[in-house]
Amino acid sequence: MIHPTAIIAPGAQLDESVQVGPYSIVGEHVKVGARTRIGPHCVIDGHTSIGPDNHFYRYCSIGGIPQDKKYADEPTGLEIGAGNTFREFVTVNTGTVQDIGTTRLGDDNWIMAYVHIAHDCQLANHIIIANSVQLGGHIHIGDWAIIGGLSAVHQFVRIGAHAMVGGTSSVRQDVPPYMIGAGDSFRPVGINAEGLGRRGFTADDVLVLKEAYKILYRRQLKLPQAVDALLVLQQDHPHEAPAVQVLIDFLRDAGRGIARP
Q1: Per-residue pLDDT at 40
Q2: 77, 101, 186, 260: which has the highest count of C-beta atoms within 10 A?
Q3: φ, ψ (nearest 5 deg) of residue 2
Q4: What are φ and ψ of residue 135, in 5° steps?
């Protein structure tokens, strides 16, 4: 399962079912779970833990040191869950001690070619990141988010669950859950209704979240006032309250402020 031209460091821990392609290199502190496939000309390095059923296509660079001038060779880490796909030339760096020290990706994420995921990013599950997206350090992305190709995301930005960022966007502030939009700078234009429907949200959920969008972006409220109005909306619609709560929780922690139309 390991090509004879591949180089596996003595300390590396690979499940016996792992495949490693020609000319790939796996470092001494790397752990790789069952059925993971590492294509040709990949480098998997650093204190990197990789779960089962991942697929790294050719020329991926995973677990490289942070592109941060403060980094002083600390043994920071990278954790990758299960079932992720990394297409050609993807780069993912380890964390820094200025944050929690670990870059993390969850499960079932689809990372397309030439994407860069910088130090200390925290990606949840079922995320799609299209070609040539560049993520600065310390970015958090929620479940089911989609980021269109050639977009750039500023460090420390959060992108909420089920949000959709259109291609060639420049994202400098937080994108709340469920929003859809694009632009330089990113501007929300509504709720990602079609995506929500595909993921099992009811028609009533979508209607209430559209009202939440109006509260947040159309009533010219300050953010604390908008949160108070969302709490009232939640009380008026108890069946849809869990979906609204996701938005409220996100807004209560909007460190960089939220993207505005």
Answers
A1: 98
A2: 186
A3: -115, 120
A4: -105, 120
Coil, helix or strand at residue 238: helix
Residues 6 or more apart whose Cβ sits within 8 Å of residue 225:
none
Per-residue pLDDT reduced to its tens digit, 112-170: 999 999 999 999 999 999 999 999 999 999 999 999 999 999 999 999 999 999 999 99
Report the alpha-carbon distance of residue 81 to residue 148 in Å, rounded: 22
Alpha-carbon distance 95 to 91, whole Å?
13
Told to judge if 120 belongs to the known catalytic residues of this protein, a careful annotator would answer: yes
List 51, 77, 81, 137, catalytic entry: 137
- What's residue 256's pLDDT? 86
Q: Same domain for 133 and 202? A: no
Instruction: Judge whether 65 lies within some domain.
Output: yes
Residues 27 and 115 in one domain: yes
First to last CA, the chain: 52
Residue 203 has pLDDT above 90, yes or no: yes
How many structural domains does the chain have?
2
Q: Is 15 a catalytic residue?
A: no
The encoded tokens of residue 245 equal 């709560």
Identify whether 119 is a catalytic site residue. yes
Q: Contact at 8 Å (CB) between 192 and 227?
A: no
Does 182 fall in a domain? no
Q: Looking at 41, 47, 116, 119, which residue is catalytic?
A: 119
Question: Does the residue 259 lie in any domain?
Answer: no
CATH assignment of the domain containing 120: 2.160.10.10
Domain that holds residue 68: 7-138
Tokens describing residue 253: 């922690």
pTM of the model: 0.97
Q: Categorize the per-residue pLDDT at 255 as very low, low, confident or very high, splitting at 50, 70 and 90.
A: confident
